[in-house]
Amino acid sequence: MKLHYQIHGSGTPLVILHGLFGTLENWGSQIKALSEHFQVVAVDLRNHGRSPHAERTDYEVMAEDVISLLDDLGLDCVNLMGHSMGGKVAMQLALNHPERLKKLIVVDISPVIYPHHHQDVLKGLFSIDLEQIKSRTQADQQLSTYIEEPGVRAFLLKNLYKDDNKQFQWRMNLATLSQEYNHISAAPSGSPFSGKTLFIKGANSDYIQAEHRNAILALFPQATYKLIQDAGHWPHAEKPAIFTQLVIKFLAD
Question: Among residues 48, 51, 83, 84, which one is catalytic?
């Protein structure tokens, strides 16, 4: 599979992976800031953004997709950062191919199995009648029945686009992401990654818990942690300046 990607800046490569229902565009402000210091390679994972669709969606195959991209780009060893689902892809890649990484950054996710917690999101996305809606406003109105937060709805609706027939479509492979959700909830596994690893947590997010510490250290024994106050599950977007400085400092040390 040939993943869609963008390259910005120059220097040591930093590969960035987005989360579930996201795209590389979610990292826009960080790409701009970090590309002043690194060669940023921002990636759309399979079944997301402008990357190809496929039935299989698990961390083994998604990690191999990224390895194939690194091979195509001639990048032998990179820094790697992933958020949420992308953080699990990054962790799996580190466990499978430690020789390909300099350092690893995991944003607001742990290497554990999570309970199904996107039921309302999936119900809301499937409720949108793509054949009938004429505007994003109409899509937002339909989605609001299931999702109260305007910011979350706006994030999800970035996946909408109009095809050549001016018909709204999803860029993400919604059907497969729903069918493969158990794989997306799963934990990465493998032999421990001995490289330097930074876990960044939004203080208001519950994705990284104190009880995850043993699971983290079992796989990432050199893990360190940073907490960003007044931030939730998207600390890179909610507190961009603080986040950028944390990344730069960690990769420079």
Answer: 84
